[in-house]
Design goal:
Radius of gyration: 44 Å
Largest sheet: 3 strands, antiparallel
Distance between the termini: 136 Å
Order of helices and strands: HHHHEEEEEE
Number of strands: 6
Mean pLDDT: 85
Low-confidence stretches: 1-19
Helix content: 55-70%
Shape: elongated
Number of helices: 4
Structural class: alpha+beta
Number of domains: 3
Length: about 190
């Protein structure tokens, strides 16, 4: 009967022995799954890092493209700045020539002189139209508030008709190209009496 007790004991021992053997058999699979899970996690982190890096590079490329487009537009707009500055004296001289002839003198002039004056007027208009086509504009000054970026004050005029700081007289026209001052207008500014 001792044998009968032994099988019970063996039966009790057999599951214990089978348990560690079964764990050892399933451990390689668990270890493999754990290793694959860790590798997937590592790869997911790497994907996230690369995705963030790609997004930063795409944003940098987009910002660079926009900056280059802006610089190209500015270069196109302001390319003629030096040439335009040189032509401003021509526009000034034409305006002075026309201002030197009073309406009475013009009426009393012979036909050749009137035709010459008409030609100078047409040439001045064409020059100003060419300026306008290239983004160069004459500054409007009279009645405007004095702006040190666009005006150069030559003198002050004591007056009660205009608020202080208002441009009341223009000695020389000013010009701007785009938003930049090409040449400031030389002006007289109102001050309180």
């Amino acid at each position: 009967m001792a044998d009968e007790t032994n099988p019970t004991d063996c039966g009790g021992e057999a599951p214990e022995a089978a348990g560690p053997a079964a764990e050892t058999a399933s451990n390689p699979k668990d270890a493999e799954i754990a290793a694959l899970t860790a590798e997937v996690a590592t790869l997911m982190e790497e994907i996230a890092t690369l995705k963030a890096s790609m997004l930063r590079l795409a944003a940098d490329a987009d910002n660079t493209r926009k900056r280059l487009e802006r610089e190209k537009a500015e270069a196109t707009l302001y390319a003629a700045t030096n040439f335009a500055k040189d032509l401003l004296s021509v526009a000034d001289n034409m305006a002075r020539a026309l201002a030197a002839v009073s309406p009475e003198t013009r009426e009393a002039a012979d036909e050749a002189t009137r035709n010459l004056l008409a030609g100078v007027e047409v040439t001045e208009r064409e020059l100003l139209n060419t300026f306008q086509r290239h983004g160069i504009r004459k500054l409007v000054t009279i009645g405007e508030k004095f702006d040190p970026n666009m005006h150069q004050a030559l003198f002050e005029v004591p007056t009660g008709e205009h608020p202080p700081g208002t441009v009341v007289q223009e000695v020389q026209s000013g010009y701007a190209i785009g938003e930049r001052c090409l040449r400031p207008a030389m002006v007289g500014v109102a001050k309180a009496e």
